[in-house]
Amino acid sequence: MAKSNHSAVSDFILSGLTDNPELQAILFGIFLVIYLASVLGNLGLIVLTHISPQLHTPMYFFLSHLAFVDFSFTSSVTPNTLVNFLCEVKSIAFYACAIQVCCFITFAVCEEYLLAIMAYDRYVAICSPLLYVILMPRKLCNQIIASTYIYGFTVGLVQTVVTFHLSFCDSNVVNHFYCDDVPLVALACSDTHIKELLLLIVAGFNTLCSLLIVIISYVFILFAILRIRSAEGRQKAFSTCASHLTSITIFYGTIIFMYLLPKSSHSLDTDKFASVFYVVVIPMLNPFIYSLRNQEVKNALKRIKGKLCLAIK
Q1: Cα–Cα distances in Å, from 288 out to 128, 197, 255, 294?
Q2: DSSP assignment of 119-149, as one string?
Q3: Tens digit of each residue's pLDDT (9 = 90 or more) over 8-57
Q4: Contact 77/277 with Cβ under 8 angstroms?
Q5: Is 57 left (phi over 0), alpha (psi -120 to 50) or beta?
Q6: The whole model's pTM is what?
Q7: Which residues sit opposite 174 in a β-bridge?
């Protein structure tokens, strides 16, 4: 990726979340705890799904990849943010900023479609339980995951190339705590019409397509659950979807607020604090949501604990 000939910027200054040193120290501690919890939770979930035979199903295969995406997503931003809390000048090199933007977009798109894929997986499991293994073989699951990563990276790369071919000649201060497309485009002194249109179309397309898959899947799931005669059966079917419903509500609610609502309804500063929830908090919440509200995961944890206790004795 080459810099624009008109760009005089070699690095960017991130404005961060606050200029108050005392508040920065507090935020450093909070972010560090959340990040460590996110790393342990997501990596722990990946390991658990790989070593527990009872979790070798398409649902947990997709869940392990969601955990990997969450780990990668937050790791593309949070470590650098932690360093910046300790620095007086929060600078990031031009190409490092570009890499961060590409990683951010890639994993955001992957997460959108992974949540949609998981909704479809729940639809197949609940609406066609006897054909579940046939309809969702491992080969198909691998192809779906590979396609998701390839598409996510393609979107991230294209958006990043277009952004960093803009001219940045007036200011290099990004009004954010990480390199993000929207505040970077706001800095550009060249024509941003094409980039803004591309951003709106791609973000809108990905969000609406993935959300449509989720909505259609859950409409069919709802009808299937309502056809179950016993209350216990309905409760069991709904419980398999509860964790996923919680995740998609949090994720899509935040992303729609940040990228699809009119900018007149909120400022870049508001987006900045919404991003904390989107980039830092959600990746920590997902492994706990799927662990605490999922009986199979809890049973797998108990078995692992039991084996560890026997091994120690």
Answers
A1: 28, 37, 20, 10
A2: HHHHHHHHHSGGGHHHHS-HHHHHHHHHHHH
A3: 678 899 988 888 888 999 999 999 999 999 999 999 999 999 998 888 89
A4: no
A5: beta
A6: 0.89
A7: 14
